[in-house]
Amino acid sequence: MTEELLGALADGLLPEFVTPIVAFLAHEDCPVSGEVYSVGGGHVSRVFLGVTPGYTNKEMTVEDIRENFETIRSESGYEVPGNLNEEMMLTLKALS
Predict the structure, then answer these.
(1) Positive or negative, the Cα torsion across 24, 9, 7, 36?
(2) For 3-31, what is each residue's pLDDT tens digit?
(3) Among residues 95, 22, 6, which one has the least CA distance to residue 54?
(4) In the chain, what are the domain boundaries?
(5) What is the 3-class SS of the chain, one letter each residue?
(6) What's the rounded Cα separation, in Å, for the pair 58 and 94?
(7) What is the pLDDT of residue 13?
């Protein structure tokens, strides 16, 4: 089925293209844990969630959301929290 959907690109999904990153991530010298990677066809990239500065208003309304939606959606100045605690700290920082 994969070959039917991807044609020649299906060859890039063979195990030999994934094995090196799996071996590295499982090795005791690997400096990271809990991260996600996109792998295939000889390409490896990190996938992550980023948290933007967003918009804060303690008396927020639907109109505030509409008027500030561009700011809310802006990807500039994002941070990549390493875990939920770090994400919560970013939220608390925005509220202070």
Answers:
(1) positive
(2) 677 777 777 788 888 999 999 999 999 99
(3) 95
(4) 2-47, 62-95
(5) CHHHHHHHHHHHHCHHHHHHHHHHHHCCCCCCCCCEEEEECCEEEEECCCECCCCCCCCCCHHHHHHCHHHHHCCCCCECCCCHHHHHHHHHHHHC
(6) 11
(7) 80
